[in-house]
Amino acid sequence: MCHENEQTYPNCPVVHRTLEVGGLTKSQLIQKLQQHAILMNKYGEMLLADGRFMTSDTKYSLKTVELTVGDLGFSDGATTPQIFKRAGELGLEMCPLELGPHLRLKYLDQPEGYSGNPLQRHQAPSGSITIASEILTDDDEFPKGFYLRRMNGVLWLRGYIADHLHVWNSDDHFIFCKR
Q: Which of 50, 89, 126, 168 has the most CB atoms less than 10 A away?
């Protein structure tokens, strides 16, 4: 990624993906995650179980962009509202919540996250990718979205908790949809 030299999106290297999403029920998605031995934390399970988590009956294609908070021009980090606002100004959109499990099922070769240091509380884990999606509720105890992680060879689809004041680091990775 490219924020060291202060280049910002779209004038920096990013990871582009085209994904097919939809066509599975919630229970079919959960079954596929289990078939691929993908683990979830309690926040990921809460998101999937919530009635506001909707799946599309029909398959559709999404173009996504993976970039860092620094790639959006925040060399000192930024809050979730700042990140989402800047991404919108740059022509990026929020992802549907159902992209999380679909992307996890497609991105099976995610590199290992660095696990040599103890987890830093209240920060995105090393090697994780947060999926920028509409936040379902302002309730600070309810997960805000999904992130993907590989740790000790195990693939995870995890939910995260972060209030509107949480500052993400400049090297934290996010996925947005392209218009």
A: 168
Instruction: Enumerate long-range contacts of 45-51, CB under 8 Å, 24 or more apart.
Output: 45/159, 46/142, 46/143, 46/159, 47/97, 47/100, 47/136, 47/143, 47/145, 47/146, 47/159, 48/101, 50/136
Question: What proportions of the chain, in percent to the nearest 5, are helix, strand and coil?
Answer: 25, 25, 50
pLDDT digits over 111-166, tens only? 998 655 555 667 888 889 999 999 999 999 999 999 999 999 999 999 999 999 99
How far is it, in rounded angstroms, from Cα 12 to Cα 67?
9
76: nearest Cα among 88, 66, 68, 87:
68
Q: How many CB atoms lie within 10 A of CB 62?
A: 20
Domain that holds residue 92: 3-178
- Is the pTM of the predicted complex or chain greater than 0.85? yes
Residue 73, CB-side half-sphere exposure with 13 Å CA sphere = 11
Tokens 């993906």 belong to 17
Length in residues, the chain: 179
